[in-house]
Amino acid sequence: MDPRAQKMIIIVSVAVVVTVALLVIAGFFLYSRPQTTTFLRDIAIIVLAFETLVVIFFLGVVTILLIYLILTLEREIKPVLNATSETVYTVRGTTTFISDTVVSPIMTVASIVGAVKGVAQAITGLRSKGRGKRGPG
């Protein structure tokens, strides 16, 4: 076993034994002195009630802050989403315009040139050099 693991096991074992011993001693002390036990119980109840009030207060504060955060995000994100959707519509319109006015005519001209070239090659019986040729494989 690793020496660090052995050391950790020893430390945890000692801590458990000490904790159990302290609980037994405290139980014996509280059993033998009922007035002290009653006093300590009352103090513990008061402290727990105070802690409960503090926790409830902070839960209220966190709830209010969460509501504020949600409203702020709603106010900030809606304009950003609207601007983004406007940008998307603009880009879509631009791409449609470019496709209709630039790309389609270029493709039409390229297909016509290819067709004329193919017809010319078919008529003359010549093949273009460099394209479509394969070397020894």
Describe it.
With 137 residues, the protein is mainly alpha-helical. The protein has one domain (8-115). The protein has helices at 3-32, 34-124. The longest helix has 91 residues, at 34-124. The radius of gyration is 42 Å and the shape is elongated. The chain starts with a helix and ends in a 13-residue tail after the last helix.
List the topology elements.
Elements: H1 3-32, H2 34-124
The helix fraction, in percent, is: over 70%
Low-pLDDT runs of 5+ residues are: none
In this structure, how is the largest beta sheet organized? Answer: none
The sequence of SSEs as H and E is: HH
Count of the domains: 1
Structural class: mainly alpha
- Report, as a whole number of angstroms, the end-to-end distance: 64 Å
Radius of gyration: 42 Å
Mean pLDDT comes to 87
Number of helices: 2
